[in-house]
């Protein structure tokens, strides 16, 4: 039995930052698989499972807006914090936030809605009490109640994601209006971030050539030759 899930997510703003844009934030046209995985892990995650994104359904027109955001230019040093803990003194840890604040332009998505289609795989860390049915039920219960370990976000922390479970057997939601969505022909989205390889030294980023077909982004599965480092 395949334990697949469908999760509807939406929000007024989203920013799935393109890594090639160094200083200014510019969003991809569509939610990335890594961002989708982050939302699912916020709802339910254990070392025993690994989420795999199958596809992302786009339910609203892809529209961009330029805004300016305040970003902090510095953060507390880990080494300084560890040193302060050893000596029992917090002197020197204060950050002058006003002096380190930077205002940057961002190109973000507005009024977004997606359906994440995914499944999970058991990992080597699964114990004797772990089984797919158990984690499938746990995810469904938490998602149906709107529960999450941390607030799911649409790319960046300030853009909260609203989420609802699409029950098993229910048709996948489709756009209410197709006119103007630009889904009539395949849309080449270029190279998109698939995920980060945390098991390889240096944690290289992995990419794939993304195409939006009939409003659906099909995501390559782990180990696929379509995934490039």
From TrEMBL:
Membrane spanning residue stretches: none
**Name of this protein:** pre-crRNA processing endonuclease
* Function summary: CRISPR (clustered regularly interspaced short palindromic repeat) is an adaptive immune system that provides protection against mobile genetic elements (viruses, transposable elements and conjugative plasmids). CRISPR clusters contain spacers, sequences complementary to antecedent mobile elements, and target invading nucleic acids. CRISPR clusters are transcribed and processed into CRISPR RNA (crRNA).
Keyword Protein biosynthesis on entry: no
Q: What is the lineage of its organism?
A: Bacteria, Pseudomonadati, Pseudomonadota, Alphaproteobacteria, Hyphomicrobiales
A Pfam family annotated for this chain is Cas_Cas5d
Q: Which family does it belong to?
A: Belongs to the CRISPR-associated protein Cas5 family. Subtype I-C/Dvulg subfamily.
Instruction: Return the EC number.
Output: 3.1.-.-
Q: Which UniProt keywords apply?
A: Antiviral defense, Endonuclease, Hydrolase, Nuclease, RNA-binding
* GO BP, one annotated term: defense response to virus
Key word DNA damage present in the record? no
The family database entries (NCBIfam families) matched by this protein are listed as: cas_Cas5d (TIGR01876), CRISPR_cas5 (TIGR02593)
Q: Which GO terms describe its molecular function?
A: endonuclease activity; hydrolase activity; RNA binding
């Amino acid at each position: 039995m395949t334990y697949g899930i469908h999760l509807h997510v939406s929000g007024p703003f989203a920013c799935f930052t393109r890594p090639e844009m160094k200083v200014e934030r510019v969003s991809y046209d569509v939610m990335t698989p890594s961002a989708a995985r982050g939302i699912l892990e916020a709802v339910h995650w254990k070392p025993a499972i690994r989420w795999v994104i199958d596809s992302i359904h786009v339910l609203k027109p892809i529209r961009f807006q330029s805004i300016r955001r305040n970003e902090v230019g510095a953060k507390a040093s880990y080494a300084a914090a560890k040193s302060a803990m050893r000596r029992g003194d917090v002197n020197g840890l204060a950050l002058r936030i006003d002096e380190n604040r930077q205002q940057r332009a961002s190109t973000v998505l507005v009024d977004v809605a997606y359906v994440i289609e995914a499944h999970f795989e058991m990992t080597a860390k699964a114990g004797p009490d772990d089984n797919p049915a158990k984690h499938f039920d746990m995810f469904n219960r938490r998602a149906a109640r709107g529960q999450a370990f941390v607030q799911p976000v649409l790319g960046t922390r300030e853009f909260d994601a609203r989420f609802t479970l699409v029950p098993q057997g229910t048709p996948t939601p489709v756009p209410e209006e197709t006119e103007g969505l630009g889904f009539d022909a395949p849309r080449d989205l270029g190279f998109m971030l698939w995920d980060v390889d945390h098991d390889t030294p240096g944690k290289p980023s992995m990419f794939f050539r993304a195409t939006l077909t009939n409003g659906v982004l099909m995501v390559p599965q782990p180990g696929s030759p379509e995934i490039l480092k």
